[in-house]
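Researcher: I need the complex structure. Ligand is guanosine-5'-diphosphate. Inputs:
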Amino acid sequence: MFDTRPNREAEVVLVGRSNVGKSTLMRELTGHSKFATGGSPGVTRKPNHYDWAAEDFVITDLPGFGFMSGVPEEVREDIKRDVVQYVEEYADNILVAVLVVDGKAVVDIIDRHSGPEEIPHDVEMFGFLQELGVPTVVAVNKMDKVDDRDERLDDLAERLGLYTPWQQFDEILAPISAKRGNIEALNQAVRHHLHEQQRDDLFKFF
Ligand code: GDP
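Model: Output:
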């Protein structure tokens, strides 16, 4: 279990497979550059906490799970188990969970891993967060690489058990390009969930 968490009442977490652009997004959100990006995928094995003590608030980038080249299966399983445990343990503190996916690849990856005995990581994580009652935004990243935007987002909505057209879920599905600094859809969705929890004071972070 991770023991790095600062003791803060309110939290926003980023979860997702490795290499989807979580570190890039974190840097974009925080305007901070201490978070390593690029290099070997899955380089983050421990959470990165961005801590605002004065606001009693922390944004946490949880380690990427799923396939990482050169990382043994059992290590990947350990990371995923730790992420699940973390979210379970702090579910009451987590105002919003941001599930980051690669908009270009996510539907193919989901379809490749769907079967009678297999639930794809992203679908599983989305369901898990919903079961816990944690307000969830799916940040559909790398949209700069996607041509058929609405079609792709509709496909993803269906895979997540939502309906089409995807636009009716713009509090859940947020198409972004972290690398290009285009994250307004995510900020809006996050603010929506903060507002619902009377936490407009945290809008300044999003
Ligand atoms: P992490 O493993 O999820 O933390 O992913 P990183 O933030 O390290 O990003 C993985 C790779 O995806 C890097 O090469 C990034 O430059 C790239 N990347 C991140 N966001 C975007 C994006 O919005 N568009 C594109 N085209 N590439 C991105």
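Model: Summary of the prediction. Strands lie at 10-16, 48-52, 57-61, 94-102, 136-141, 173-175.
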